[in-house]
Amino acid sequence: MACSLHVAWDDGLTSYNFGPQHPLAPVRVELTMALSREFGVFDRPGVTMIDGVEPASDELLQLVHAPDYIEAVKRAGKTLEPDDPYCLGTSDNPVFPDMHDASALVAGASVRAAAAVWHGEAAHAANIAGGLHHAMPRHAWGFCVYNDAALAIAWLLEQGAKRVAYVDVDVHHGDGVQAMFYDDPRVLTISLHESPATLFPGTGRATETGGPGAEGYAVNVALPAGTNDARWLRAFEAVVPPLLREFQPEVLVTQQGADTHALDPLANLVLSLDGQRRTYAALHRLARETAGGRWLLLGGGGYELVQVVPRAWTHLLAEASGGQVDPASATPDSWRAFVRERTGELPPLYMTDGRDPQYTPFEDGFDPEDPVDQAIQATRRAVFPSHGMDPSL
How does residue 2 score in pLDDT terms, banded at 50, 70 and 90? Predict the structure, then answer.
């Protein structure tokens, strides 16, 4: 069954570009949009491209960012000089021309997508160039200048939303979004990520559960390096669905970083494309079940630019449109030629890694010696009681 989906897109979104040596290369988004077009995702009934994507204004950005930081970003984009107090000009966050304009456009696209969902223009809306979840109120962090995910949530709250859920499946902890709503029980943040013991940003432990008055509204599942499809899906199903069913958000916002994949060069989880695709279906189902279908989906990390990100996010957009791309499908010849032209790399041949991910539900039995089960149990014990839920059930 087709779903209504608005896709926020402007060619200017590829101008968020830290330079040719930086791992966050905008070609991954360009290749995703091209592959989705080749599969006809944007031509499906109910799928439209959002018109009028504009940069977020200073006033809008100030919902989550300090005015002096916004001015520092503008200044850095003009002078190309580093600004240490704001973490601009580091190896992670190099300055680039017109940095503010490019970053504000990404943020504006996510807010425009949020508006489409909030005002009922579409059940679902996407900004795959978004998901810059690390940016903090007063400094850049982890390849992220403005936190478009947090801004979209803050905008929804300004419109009167009383409950917004944020689920982050990026391999890195969604620290910026968590920090901005740590004391706000209107926002439930859930992040599944590689353990802070082995990966940036070094936060996201199960003990980080929310500030005074919001205990249990920050949820972190810190998974050990080497976690595969079966174990990751087990953790997801043990934590995310019961919390969303209890919370009943008015809008579900998800960050869909593809860097959990085994080929990603910056992290250590070993999911397949097929495991990621199963996650997209689960989030779609949960949006319909718990949030009245209101689903804002954003991109995020993902540094295997050719083999992983375009296929993963094409599956994501197809899922949100209500019609999946057959994983056995061959990638189109014209897209393969485009990949070779743009990157010089060999493109993937099929829309699958050839896996059929299955998992054993956590409720079927807890293994106290298993590190993934230990992570699941730590999270459930830390937050479930705050929601009136028994962590042992």
Answer: low
Given a contact cutoff of 8 angstroms between Cβ atoms, the answer to whether 282 and 361 are in contact is: no
For domain 5-191+251-357, which CATH number applies: 3.40.50.720, 3.10.450.50, 3.40.800.20, 1.20.81.30?
Answer: 3.40.800.20
Is this model's pTM higher than 0.90 or not?
Answer: yes
Does 284 participate in catalysis according to the annotation? no
The residue annotated as part of the active site, out of 6, 65, 100, 134, is: 134
Enter the DSSP assignment of 117: H
- Structural contact between residues 203 and 175, judged by C-beta atoms closer than 8 angstroms: yes
Asked if residue 1 has pLDDT above 80, the reply is no
Q: Please state the rounded mean pLDDT for residues 107-125.
A: 97
Distance CA 87, CA 305 (A): 25
Would you state the pLDDT for residue 3?
Answer: 84
Residue 76 identity (one-letter amino acid): A
* pLDDT tens by residue, 345-393: 999 999 999 999 999 999 999 999 999 999 999 999 999 999 999 998 7
Q: What are the domain boundaries of the chain?
A: 5-191+251-357
Tokens standing for residue 41: 């995702």
Tell me the CA end-to-end span of the chain in Å, nearest whole number: 34
Q: Going by DSSP bridges, is the β-strand pair 124-127/295-298 parallel, antiparallel, or unpaired?
A: parallel
DSSP 335: H
Burial of residue 222 (CB within 10 Å: 0-12, 13-18, 19+) is buried
In whole angstroms, give the CA distance from residue 294 to residue 278: 19
Cβ proximity of 134 and 172 under 8 Å: yes
C-beta separation of 209 from 219 below 8 A = yes
